[in-house]
Amino acid sequence: MTVKVGILGAGYIGGVHARNLRRDERATLVGVADIRPEAAQRLAGEVGTRALPDLGALLHEGAQAVYVTTPNAHHVDPVLAALGAGVHVFSEKPMATTLEGARQIAAAASRSKGRYQLGFNRRWAPAYAFVRALIASGELRPAMAHVKMNRGELQSPPWVSTTALTGGFLYESTIHLLDMCRFLLGDIAAVLCRARTTAYQEPDGFAAILRCASGALVTFHSCAHATWIFPFERIELFGPHQAVVTEEMERVSMSPGLGREIAVRDFFQLPMEEKWGYRLEDRKFLDAILGGEPPAVTAEDGLRATELVEACYRSARGGTEVALPLA
């Protein structure tokens, strides 16, 4: 059995997913839609399908699943429409750029016959999966962490500096590593955040302390104008005489204990789609549709990540710690 899939949004990430799906014999691409006809035509030609104008046209072509890969602020309406039609939805992050929008999607996903999966690709990156396995096995017992998620600039693509489209810098890139904190360390109980505006017309630098429900403490830093110096993302986890450090999705270093050798695992040789987790998350989406498995990243995961971003902004504006979940 194959799944008829439509792509809504023909930008960079829409292309990544379309190429992955073209390689999976369980998927048939029925069309690529974009408000820019030339973009839809370019990607459709590359992956051997039709260029279409909008979501309605994708559904008319018989799409059983839709990838929503539009700019951040344009996720909610097509996701709600597709779920309302009983169609399976893979939505790129963020789930929404408001808490209200995220709650609407979570409610719609709970009612729909279609599956809903959110694109937190880093959960499937081998480097982070390796760290998660260390924690799950008990080999690593993190009590403290330092997390960095930077961007070199907010210039490419041009819309990433437009808050009306991104929802704000934290929704554009930083949300990936905020989700990773929860993925590795469990639910976050409270956030204390400070922010400043330096290079752009919105807050573009953040420093936060996250208190985990487990008792673990995280210092979190994110800068939108850091240049692309390596590594632009890094996680340091510390247990009792233990340390694990990730450098982007290229390498994991582990010091398992005093007097023990430091181990290093490299992933730099992997193709980007595999190293960054895109290939596996697309496979997992088809697994959920065809095999009846739960979605790999759920609406609940998306809602909690949205709350975490909103808590950072609220704390930065108000100057006080914000408890989670949000009321």
Distance between the termini: 43 Å
Q: What's the average pLDDT?
A: 98
Percent strand equals 25-35%
CATH class of the largest domain: Alpha Beta
Q: Flag low-confidence runs.
A: none
- Total number of helical segments? 11
Summed up, the domain count is 2
Which superfamily, in CATH terms, is the homologous superfamily of the largest domain?
Dihydrodipicolinate Reductase, domain 2
Total beta strands:
15
Return Rg in Å.
20 Å
Order of helices and strands: EHEHEHEHEHEHEHHEEEEEEEHHHE
Q: Could you give a short description of this structure?
A:
GO terms for molecular function: nucleotide binding. By secondary structure, this protein is α/β, with parallel strands linked by helices. 37% of the residues lie in helices and 25% in strands.
Notes on the structure:
Pfam families: GFO_IDH_MocA (PF01408), GFO_IDH_MocA_C (PF02894). This is Gfo/Idh/MocA family oxidoreductase. InterPro entries: Gfo/Idh/MocA-like_OxRdtase_C (IPR004104), Gfo/Idh/MocA-like_OxRdtase_N (IPR000683), Gfo/Idh/MocA_Oxidoreductases (IPR051450), NAD(P)-bd_dom_sf (IPR036291). The protein is an alpha/beta fold and 327 residues long. It folds into 2 domains: 3-120 and 278-298, NAD(P)-binding Rossmann-like Domain (Rossmann fold), CATH 3.40.50.720; 123-270 and 306-323, Dihydrodipicolinate Reductase, domain 2 (2-Layer Sandwich), CATH 3.30.360. Helices cover 37% and strands 25% of the residues. It contains 11 helices and 15 strands. It has helices at residues 12-23, 37-47, 55-60, 76-84, 99-111, 126-137, 163-166, 169-185, 272-275, 278-291, 299-318; strands at 3-8, 27-33, 51-52, 65-68, 88-92, 116-119, 144-149, 188-196, 205-212, 217-223, 233-239, 242-247, 251-255, 263-266, 322-323. The strands form 2 sheets. A 9-stranded mixed β-sheet has the order 14-13-12-11-7-10-9-8-15. It has a 6-stranded parallel β-sheet with strand order 3-2-1-4-5-6, with helices on both faces. Helix 4 links the parallel strand 4 (65-68) and strand 5. Helix 1 packs across helix 10 (278-291), helix 5 (99-111) runs antiparallel to helix 11 and helix 8 packs across helix 11 (299-318). The radius of gyration is 20 Å and the shape is globular. The N and C termini lie far apart (43 Å). The model has no long low-confidence stretch (mean pLDDT 98).
